[in-house]
Design a protein that fits this description.
The complex is a heterodimer of chains A (292) and B (316). Chain A has 292 residues and is mainly alpha-helical. Chain A has eleven helices and no strands. In chain A, helix 2 crosses helix 3 (77-113), helix 3 (77-113) runs parallel beside helix 6 and helix 4 (115-130) packs antiparallel against helix 6 (148-174). Chain A is elongated, with a radius of gyration of 22 Å. Chain B has one domain (4-90, 170-256, 266-315): P-loop containing nucleotide triphosphate hydrolases (Rossmann fold), CATH 3.40.50. Chain B has helices at residues 46-53, 80-89, 108-119, 124-137, 154-165, 184-201, 212-218, 236-241, 246-253; strands at 4-15, 18-30, 35-39, 61-70, 73-74, 91-94, 172-176, 205-209, 221-226, 229-235, 303-305, 308-310. In chain B, strand 9 and strand 10 form a beta hairpin. Classes of the chains: A mainly alpha (292), B alpha/beta (316).
C-alpha cells in the first residue's frame, strides 16, 4: 500500500511535469476532450445513433439538427462518432493494460533469471515478433469472429513481445545494480527482488510503453473494423468508414467520412504526443534543464 | 569451535586467458566477541573472500575449494533456500558504496520492513515500528523512515545500510569498506556507531578496509591479504607494534601517523602481481626488501610465530 501511494505520488509529479512539455500539453488537452466525450457522450447525443431514420433524413448534410449530417440509413454521424470514441478508448486502454502486464511479467522474469529461461522466453518473443501482424490479426479476427473483445485479444497477442523486450533490457541493467545484490545479502527471495526491488524501477517505462500501446491498439482496431473484421453491431470509427465504403455513396457524402478520420488521427496524435512527452520527461536532465 | 571458520578457501575467476586465483587457499576464523579486520591493497581479494561467506560468487568466479563453517555447518553445501535464510539472519553484509546499495525508488522504511518481512511473520505495524527503531539505533530519527534515499547524505545512507543489515539480528556482520568515500568527521561518527553496535548487540564483525587507522581502533584481530593470500594474521596490537611479514611492515610504514614523529612516508615500490601469471615462489618477492634466493623458488608455508600466523621464509 505505501508503495502504491509512492507510485501515485510520483505519477502526480510526472503529470505536473507533463504540462511543462509543449507536446505533452497538446496531448493532455485532446485527451481531456476525448474523456469528456466518452463520459458525457450519452448526454451529447442528439439522436439515437443506431436507429435508422426516416426516408427524408437519409444522407442529410451537416445541419442544426444533425451536426455532422446523416448516413445512407439516416443515422446521425455525430452520435456515431461519440460512440466510436468510447470503443476506441476501451480497446486502447484494455489492450494496453493487457499488453503491458504480460510484456512486463515476461520481461522481468526473462531478464532477471537469464540463462535457459531467458533463452526460451526470448525465442517465444522472437516467434511472436516475426509474425506479420496485419495478416495474423486478420486471420485471428476472422477465426475468432467479429467482437470487440476479440480485437483486444488480437492486439494484445501481437504487441506484447515488444514490451517484453524493452522491459527485459532494462532489467538486465537493473539487476546488476548494487541495491539488488545488497537486498540479496539480507535474504531477499527471487520474487521480492523481481517485484519489490526491480519492478518499481521500471514503472516509468511501463507507463511510456502503455501510452504507445494505446495508439497502436486504436489504430489496429480501426484497421480491422475498416476491413470488415469488426463487429457490425458495435459502432466504432473504423466501422463507420467501413459502412461508408460499403454504401457506395462515400464520395457524395464527405461529412460521413471526415469525422471518423479526424477523430482517429486526433486520438492517435494525442497519445503519440503523450508518449513522446513522457519519454522526454524521463530522460535524465529534463528537470534540471528547466530548473524544476 | 569458532563462530565462523574459513578453511583453505579458493575462489578462481575463469577468464578466457586462464584461471585467476583471486582468493588462494586462505583460512581464518572469527569468534564471538571478535572483530576481524581484513586489510590489503585494492584487488587483493578481500571482497571476493567475504562474498563467499554469503555464498555470492559472480560468474566467471567460482568457489573451487575449501570450507566455510558457520555455527558448525558448511555454508558451501547448504541448499539455496537455507542460504537465503542465512543471509540476513545468520550473516548480513553492508556493501561498499552504500550510496548505490539502496533502491532509489523506495522509502528507506520500506526497504527495512521488506527485510523483516522476508524472515519473520510480523504485522505491518510491528515491522514499521522495528524499522523506526533500527533507524534510531543507527542515529537517524525514526520519522525519516518515509524518506527516499536521495534525501539522505552519504554518511546517512551508509547508516541506513547498517540499519537494514542488522534488522533481523544477524549473528555475524560484514562491513565492506564502510568509511571509504566519506569525509573524516563522518568516518569518525560511523566508526563510533560500529563500536557502539558491537558492544550493544554483541555482534561479531568482519571489517574490510584499506585504512589502517580504522582497523587499529575497531578490530581485535587483523588479517593482512596480499595477492589473494593471507600473509599475516595476528591480534591488532601486536601487528601494529611489531609486524612480522615484510609486507605488513611496509603497509604500516606507508601510513601516516598523527601522533608519532613527522617521518617521511614510505611507499611500497612496484605493483601487486597479475594473478593470471603470478611469480614463482612468494608472490611478494619482487617488491620485498628482505627477499632471499629461496623466496623466488618456493612458496612460504604458513607458520606460527609468537602466537601469530605468518607466511614468510624469514621465519623458518
Amino acid at each position: 500500500m505505501p508503495r502504491l501511494i509512492s507510485v501515485l505520488r510520483s505519477t502526480r509529479k510526472s503529470l505536473k511535469l507533463l504540462l511543462t512539455h509543449r507536446m505533452g500539453v497538446v496531448g493532455v488537452v485532446i485527451f481531456v476532450i476525448l474523456a469528456i466525450i466518452v463520459i458525457f457522450g450519452p448526454l451529447m447525443r442528439t439522436v439515437d445513433p443506431i436507429r435508422t431514420g426516416l426516408p427524408e433524413n437519409i444522407l442529410v448534410p451537416p445541419s442544426a439538427k444533425f451536426w455532422f449530417g446523416t448516413d445512407d440509413l439516416g443515422r446521425d454521424i455525430w452520435s456515431q462518432a461519440i460512440l466510436g470514441a468510447r470503443i476506441a478508448l476501451l480497446v486502447g486502454f484494455l489492450a494496453a493494460i493487457a499488453t503491458v502486464a504480460v510484456g512486463t511479467l515476461i520481461g522481468l522474469i526473462s531478464g532477471y533469471f537469464g540463462g535457459k529461461i531467458d533463452e526460451v522466453l526470448m525465442r517465444i518473443v522472437d516467434f511472436f515478433m516475426m509474425l506479420p501482424y496485419l495478416p495474423l490479426m486478420i486471420v485471428l479476427a476472422a477465426v475468432l469472429g467479429p467482437s470487440i473483445w476479440n480485437v483486444i485479444l488480437v492486439v494484445s497477442i501481437t504487441y506484447w513481445p515488444f514490451t517484453a523486450r524493452v522491459i527485459r533490457s532494462q532489467v538486465l541493467s537493473l539487476k546488476e545494480r548494487a541495491f539488488v545484490e545488497s537486498s540479496k545479502s539480507v535474504g531477499a527471495s527471487d520474487s521480492l527482488l523481481i517485484f519489490g526491488e526491480i519492478m518499481p524501477n521500471v514503472v516509468p517505462l511501463m507507463f511510456a510503453e502503455a501510452v504507445l500501446m494505446v495508439t497502436w491498439a486504436i489504430y489496429a482496431e480501426a484497421v480491422l473494423a475498416f476491413l470488415g473484421l469488426g463487429d457490425p453491431m458495435t459502432i466504432s470509427w473504423g466501422m463507420m468508414l467501413n459502412f461508408a465504403m460499403g454504401s457506395g455513396v462515400m464520395t457524395m457524402a464527405p461529412w460521413w467520412v471526415i469525422p471518423p478520420i479526424v477523430f482517429i488521427c486526433a486520438t492517435i496524435l494525442a497519445f503519440t504526443f503523450l508518449g513522446t512527452a513522457v519519454s522526454d520527461i524521463l530522460k535524465p536532465g529534463y528537470r534540471e534543464a528547466r530548473g524544476l | 569451535m569458532a563462530l565462523l571458520e574459513v578453511e583453505n578457501l579458493k575462489i578462481y575467476y575463469f577468464t578466457g586467458a586462464g584461471a585467476v586465483k583471486a582468493v588462494d587457499d586462505i583460512s581464518f576464523s572469527v569468534d564471538k566477541d571478535e572483530t576481524l579486520g581484513l586489510i590489503g591493497e585494492s584487488g587483493c581479494g578481500k571482497t571476493t573472500a567475504v562474498f563467499a561467506i554469503m555464498r555470492f560468487a559472480a560468474p566467471p568466479g567460482r568457489i573451487v575449494g575449501g570450507k566455510i563453517i558457520f555455527e558448525g555447518r558448511d555454508i558451501l553445501t547448504m541448499s539455496e533456500e537455507e542460504v537465503r535464510l542465512l543471509r540476513g539472519q545468520g550473516v548480513a553484509m553492508v556493501f561498499q558504496a552504500a550510496q548505490n546499495a539502496l533502491n532509489p525508488v523506495m522509502t528507506v522504511g520500506d526497504q527495512i520492513t521488506e527485510v523483516i518481512n522476508q524472515h519473520e511473520k510480523v504485522t505491518k505495524e510491528e515491522a514499521w515500528e522495528r524499522a523506526r527503531k533500527q533507524l534510531e539505533l543507527v542515529g537517524i530519527g525514526g520519522d525519516r523512515a518515509k524518506g527516499y534515499p536521495h534525501e539522505f547524505s552519504g554518511g546517512m545512507k551508509q547508516r541506513v545500510g547498517i540499519a537494514i543489515a542488522t534488522a533481523c539480528n544477524p549473528r555475524l556482520l560484514i562491513l565492506d569498506e564502510p568509511v571509504t568515500g566519506l569525509d573524516v568527521i563522518v568516518q569518525r561518527q560511523l566508526l563510533n556507531l560500529v563500536n557502539d553496535l558491537r558492544e550493544k548487540l554483541r555482534l561479531p564483525i568482519i571489517l574490510i578496509t584499506h585504512d589502517l587507522s580504522v582497523v587499529a581502533e575497531t578490530c581485535s584481530k587483523v588479517a593482512v591479504m596480499y595477492a589473494g593470500k593471507i600473509v599475516e594474521q595476528a591480534d591488532a596490537v601486536s601487528l601494529y607494534k611489531n609486524p612480522a611479514h615484510p609486507y605488513s611492515k611496509l603497509l604500516i610504514e606507508a601510513y601516516p601517523s598523527i601522533k608519532g614523529e613527522k617521518g617521511k612516508l614510505i611507499s611500497i615500490p612496484g605493483a601487486p602481481p597479475g594473478l593470471l601469471n603470478p611469480p614463482v615462489g612468494c608472490y611478494f618477492w619482487p617488491r620485498c626488501p628482505s627477499a632471499m634466493d629461496i623466496c623466488q623458488e618456493a612458496e612460504p608455508p604458513v607458520q606460527t610465530k609468537d602466537g601469530r600466523l605468518v607466511a614468510c621464509h624469514l621465519y623458518r
